[in-house]
Amino acid sequence: MGMIVQPIVGALSDKTWCKLGRRKPYLYVGAVVAIIVMALLPNSGSFNLTVKAALAFGAVMLMLLDTSINMAMQPFKMMVGDMVNEEQKTQAYSIQSLLCNAGSLVGYLFPYIFTWVGISNVAPEGVVPPSVTWSFYVGAIILILCVLYTGARVKEMDPEEYAKFHNIQPEQKQEKTNLLYLLLHAPKAFWQIGVVQFFCWFAFLYMWTYTTGGIAENVTAWNTVDVASAEYQAAGDWTGVLFAVQAIGSILWAMVLPLFRNAKMAYSSSLVLGALGFISAYFVHDQYLLFVSFLLIGCAWAAMLALPFAMLTNSLSGKSLGSYMGLFNCTICLPQIIASLVGGLLLGVFGGDVVNGVQTGQIAMFVVAGVSLLLAAVAVFGISTKRAE
Question: Comparing C-alpha atoms, which of 292, 305, 325 is closest to residue 99?
């Protein structure tokens, strides 16, 4: 859905000039759909649906949520490209990275906080616990407030001001382009950053997929592959804690990124730190020592949310910036699709035996992820920093 929706949103917003702004109308639409889905999704078990119908409802809602959240987030990235000068883009996207990860941290902690204040974290079979349901509701409220704040405080440029800021000539504004044409005439940096993106998102898909199974077997406190056991469930709970630690690492590292004088060095160094985090997790058997691994992984994540967009937008002329940002989203989606398709094969090669229907050795996929990030760190130095004509 991201590969379909984002390029369309980018292309349409490039041509949208109205009283609400250029990118903000799409921000509003995406936010409204996301808010509706966030209210409906945790109640999917309360609509007296059959199991198949509930699963289908959940799948559609997740598809809409992911699409609408991306539709709401993409205009933020486009507006920075539209309105921030080249020298400040790294700082601007680093601030976005910091705030994104701060939001992730709050989201991870909400269910624990609500349970702590007395909201139940248990529910009948097939029903989402109230602590999780309220997390969705409060998340929707935060989204409303943030979108309203942005809408009130950000004033987008008018067409004349935008053309002057980006040095777009009148004859350029009259040129007719489509997404295929833009893709064929993309600057070298688009494809070069895309290679880095491939290895990065390939790696992180495996973190999201294999963390629980990997640490459940690898950490001495649990040492199990039985998905029905209390130990496995404890590992699942700890995965949420580790992802929160990763968000903390990302927040801290996002403050460091603007201090680098060279964007390539900042990008590559961050990915190397992330690779060390992934590979070290393979050798760690203590659940608390994993905090170090995930703090390092957070460094790579912070860079991935900031530097590719700063480097890409600096390589573009500004005329079709939204379209290119939408197309660039494919460099996020496609690697995850490919990683999903080959993940089972790689796990069979690098993992252990199958025990009671469960593939052992899932922590080996963290080494695969680490190697992928190292390849990304090397690919960074092949990125051209020359601006498009």
Answer: 305
